[in-house]
């Protein structure tokens, strides 16, 4: 992690992308256990097929956790002031997720110099799965 300062970061700068391995059943099982989210749509093939879906799919919060990793590989966690997302697509098994971020604003609030980032996850086809924003203090 490099030392960033408010003066060295500019609107339009991008965060180093975080590319992840393809989502598989093991990842979903491990995340279900770690998070306590055992919703059947993420782990039970029979259940999702009865519901009309072709297969289980990733937890939205798994992808949000990946975005958290994107941010904390760029700045220390203690610098994070805000982090929110909107789920815009389903992350299917086999999707290779890439997390990206871009600086969209520099401002001061509560006596701190801060930046606002637009962040997202997208699959290997370039389809956004999560859109969000974050604010960090520099």
From TrEMBL:
<protein>
    <submittedName>
        <fullName>MaoC-like dehydratase</fullName>
    </submittedName>
</protein>
<dbReference type="InterPro" id="IPR002539">
    <property type="entry name" value="MaoC-like_dom"/>
</dbReference>
<dbReference type="InterPro" id="IPR029069">
    <property type="entry name" value="HotDog_dom_sf"/>
</dbReference>
<feature type="domain" description="MaoC-like">
    <location>
        <begin position="23"/>
        <end position="112"/>
    </location>
</feature>
<dbReference type="Pfam" id="PF01575">
    <property type="entry name" value="MaoC_dehydratas"/>
</dbReference>
């Amino acid at each position: 992690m490099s030392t960033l300062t408010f003066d060295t970061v500019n609107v339009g700068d991008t965060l180093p992308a975080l590319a992840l391995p393809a989502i598989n059943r093991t990842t979903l099982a491990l995340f279900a256990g770690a998070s306590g989210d055992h919703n059947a749509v993420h782990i039970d093939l029979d259940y999702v097929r009865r519901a009309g879906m072709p297969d289980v799919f990733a937890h939205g919060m798994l992808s949000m956790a990946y975005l958290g990793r994107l941010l904390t590989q760029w700045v220390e966690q203690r610098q994070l002031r805000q982090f929110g997302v909107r789920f815009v697509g389903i992350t299917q098994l086999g999707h290779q997720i890439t997390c990206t971020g871009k600086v969209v604003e520099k401002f001061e609030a509560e006596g701190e110099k801060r930046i606002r980032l637009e962040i997202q996850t997208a699959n290997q086809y370039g389809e956004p799965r999560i859109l969000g924003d974050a604010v960090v203090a520099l």
